[in-house]
# Entry
Amino acid sequence: MFSFFRKSATVPERKSGPGGLVSLSLGGAARWGGRDTAALARIGVMGNAIAYACIRKIAASAASVPWLLYDGDTELGSHPLLTLLARPNPYEDGASLFERWHGFLQGAGNAYLEAVTLDGVPRELHVLRPDRVAVVPGTRGWPAAYDYTVDGRVTRIAREPSGFLPLLHLALFHPLDDYYGLSPLAVAATAVEVHNAGSAWAKGLLDNAARPSGALIYKGPEAAPGLSDDQFARLKRELEDSYQGSANAGRPMVLEGGLDWKAMSLAPAEMDFAETRAQAAREIALAFGVPPMLLGIPGDNTYANYAEANLNFWRQTVLPLVGRSAAALTRWLCPRFGTNLRLSFDADAVDALAEAREALWDKLAAADFLTVNEKRAAAGYGPMDGESAAPHASTGSA
# Structure
C-alpha cells in the first residue's frame, strides 16, 4: 500500500512517505563531524569484547523498558502512537528498533530516527546509521536539515511544509562540538587500544609458544667458523616445525653443536599483561557507565554483590537514558498525535528494580503520618479519587 523506499538524489529535495509531500531545500552544506564513526565501530565495537558487551547490555536493557503514554495526568492504555512504537515498521518490532537506537547512541555518540509520514502523521519509524548522516546547519547555526548518504548518493531530509522535521537526532554530551555527540568509545580509546593490544599479545604468544624473544648463540670450538648457510636454514626450519605453535607450548628445546639459548625479554609475569588488560577493561566499562562486576572483570570490589551493582546500573545508566529518549520522543512525535500527550516509561516492569521497589512500598506502608495519596505520590502513582487528605490515625503516640 505504501512505498517507503527513500529516493536518493543529489538535488536538495526530498519526498517524505506516500503522501508525496515535497520538502523545500535549505541552503548550506552538510557539516560532517570530526569523528570517524566507522573506525570506532570496527576497533571499539567489533574488535573489543568489553566495549561490545557494554553497548549490548545498555541497548538491550533500555529497549526492554515498556513505554507509557499520558494525556495530561491520564494514562492511555491504547493509542496510535503506542501502536507505532510497538511496531515501528514492517521489518522490526519496537524492542529491536530501540535496541539499535540506543546501541548507535552509545557506540557513535549520535542516534538518528526518521519518521515516514502520511498526511502529516508519522506511520513508520526507521533508525539511520550515524556514519551516513550529516548535519546541515541553518542560518542561525541550529540544524536545519540532514544529509543521508549511501554509495555516494545524497538524500536531504528537510522540514515538511507543515514545519515538521522528520528526523530526530539525539546526541551525547560533547564539550567541543555544536552538533555531534561524543562517544564513550572515543573517551576510552586508549583503554580500548591497550586491551586490544593485550589480546593480540596473548594470541601471538599462543601462535609462537616456546619461541620467546631471545637469541641462539653459537659457541663452537675456538677459531671455528660460524654456521654455514645450510646449517642456519636447517636450524631455522627445525625451530619453526618443532617449537612454534600452541601445540608445542612448553616443549623442551634440545641444543647441540655448541648452541646456547639466551633470553632477551621480560617474562609475562614481570610485564603483568593480565592486570594491565583488566585495568583497561575496567576503564572501558566505567566510560559506558557499566559496573565492571556485571561483566565479570576481576578485581572490582566497588559493590557488595552483583544485585547491588545491577541496581546501580539500572538507576544511573539505563533509566536516565530511557527517560531522555522519552523526553525527545515527546517533543518530536507527540504533537503529531495530540496536543496534551506525554511519553514516559514503566519502571515497575523492570525486574531488576523489584527488590528496591518492594522495600519502598514497605516503608510507605509503615508511614502512618502520610495519606494514601501522599504514599501513592511518593511511589510514583497518581492520586485516587475520594481519599481523605488527612493522614490515617497513628497507632503510636505523637
Notes: The first strand starts at residue 14 and ends at 16. The chain has a mean pLDDT of 78. Residues 306-332 form the longest helix (27 residues). Residues 71 and 341 are 5 Å apart (CA to CA).
